[in-house]
Amino acid sequence: MNNFTYRNPVELVFGKGTIAELRRLVPQGDKVLFAYGGGSIKKNGVYDQVRAALEGREVLEFAGIEPNPRYETCMKAVDLCRKEGVGFLLAVGGGSVLDAVKFIAAAVPFQGEPWDILAKHARVEAALPLRSVLTLSATGSEMNGNSVISRDETREKLAFYSPLVYPKFSILDPETTFTLPPRQTANGVVDAFAHTMEQYMTYPADAPLQDRLAEAILSTLIEIGPKLLEHPHDYQLRANMMWTATMALNGIIGLGVPQDWATHGIGHELTALYGMDHGQTLAVVMPAVWRFKFADKKAKLAQYAERVWGVLGTEEEKARAAIEKTEEFFRLLGVKTRLAEYGAENAVEQVPPRLAQRGVVLGERRDIGPDQVREILRLCAA
Amino acid sequence: MNNFTYRNPVELVFGKGTIAELRRLVPQGDKVLFAYGGGSIKKNGVYDQVRAALEGREVLEFAGIEPNPRYETCMKAVDLCRKEGVGFLLAVGGGSVLDAVKFIAAAVPFQGEPWDILAKHARVEAALPLRSVLTLSATGSEMNGNSVISRDETREKLAFYSPLVYPKFSILDPETTFTLPPRQTANGVVDAFAHTMEQYMTYPADAPLQDRLAEAILSTLIEIGPKLLEHPHDYQLRANMMWTATMALNGIIGLGVPQDWATHGIGHELTALYGMDHGQTLAVVMPAVWRFKFADKKAKLAQYAERVWGVLGTEEEKARAAIEKTEEFFRLLGVKTRLAEYGAENAVEQVPPRLAQRGVVLGERRDIGPDQVREILRLCAA
Fold first, then answer.
1. Would you list which residues of chain A are within 8 Å, Cβ to Cβ, of chain B?
2. Do A172 and A195 belong to one domain?
């Protein structure tokens, strides 16, 4: 177990009917930018609930934040905030809207070209305050300081972190997720699962609690994932999914342990190049990373197989079974696990030079460079 | 799963060598009250590390905070803070020092008799900022807003909670716990175990993640507890214990689920009347609460037996085994589990009228009154 620091100041307001709490929680006086996505919140009643709770406030709307939010879109909101003197941001949506709003919050007071926050890790010295109403269980963005933004011009998808872009509060009403299409529900399960694995599936690090907390999340996702697809309006299932996805990436389970994140690093390229859903990229790449790094990850793969799936056998047998079981789980959720199934076989050749150009090395041992990525992509091509 | 709100703003600074971080973390200018206990920090080097890190600051010392910190002691510190215009408090010690400092922080600006914060749940409207350096893994006080204070005059031990008394930061250096006597180490394991159980051992509440997170903590304590007593200078064991005890009572595992706390409610009386260690009272009372509430808790007892202890059988068999296994675990740690072993059999008659006088009812169903407490105490008398 390594040294760590941790601070997570987000106030969570969780449960049915909690959007009305906005009225109490949102400060008086400041001008609000109410940011949302493609309009699904107008169909499921969330938009009306938010407007009702904000009655009497000065509210500007910014609609049209897309999945894998685009830098170009964010910069329109940045201009609006600067012009109108917006006091704080309210993100209403899933991880894409939250991530966009985090970037907008950091970009508004930024001196210079805000793309540098993503491309050059320019330091974020200030940010507008932001708050959120979550409508999709997946990214954990509601309780962390992470954001991932895409840019059309360069076909890049890049991430940043800042302690200044944690939401002041996040309202998590599971009922807002009742109307999600099955594909988004399934992607959310895969995303939370992969977040947990990026912090867990490395090598033994004398951290039995972190291991077991991660296994708790994995077991829960395996238990509730398929049920969610069968019973999309079951409040308890949706509530458990929402809390589980938050716990998967609020930082707790990764404290003091090595982390991988190679799957995300490669997955972002697949989204940038082929428009694959984030969850789909993870379902494809993660088993291949494990196959490629089998020797390094064998001990943890075997532990996972035994504790989470109840597999018995030799370490080798358990570790092999861990990969098979995980891939079967993704496919059971309806998420395909091979590049060819998304028409993205070209990735084997197209992704490595892009990573080489940015000098990216990945994995808990920082030993996955472009050549290793090519091998990994070959392992999930067809 | 019930609705909940959660916010925990404590910054954790975890690991060996982190006391030196005080220099960076403590604000310049404000006068510090450096509060500690009976002087063990002078023997194990912690005092010197703290003084070195505070060099150049205006520091007042307040020593002599006892285990089960006394109101009378706290009020001396309150007077000192008021007289000297102390800017913030630095607690250096275990849960007792932290709890005392939380109460002092709330009492300094309090208008009226500060005992009312404990006895009448008077609202805490303001508090001095406080920070902590933890030297004992047990209470979780380093990452919550709870405090328990005792009063000689009335032989009472009462608790309060306020969002204003979370430490700004807590430094957790596992090396500070190397020199703890075995009794304190064992009590700490029992305390963290009991905190987890108070939030878990109730009835099924459609909260699979909370259940599994609690089981993760219980399994870890069972794994490392006995080893800690054998290898008190093992850094990794001490580090895992420290993080596990913090996670047991930072609020995460109890979100949205019923909680019991009858064991603590009864245990505090045993400490107030007989001076039993807090951990000892929990080891005595908890198995008796489970025996008394066997029907209500049977489903969770059986789940715990199966998942944490690997017990198989009928629900009844597993639930019975859960109680036996737990009592064996406490005794394996050297913590006795019967009132008679502490010369405290009188509790059967002495405790119930005290609770009756305060109108206390306990348990997740609020159905444990004085008569039920008498039955519980009979079950752990001899």
1. 1-18, 169, 206-210, 212-213, 215-217, 219-220, 223-224, 236, 239-240, 243-244, 247, 252, 255-256
2. no
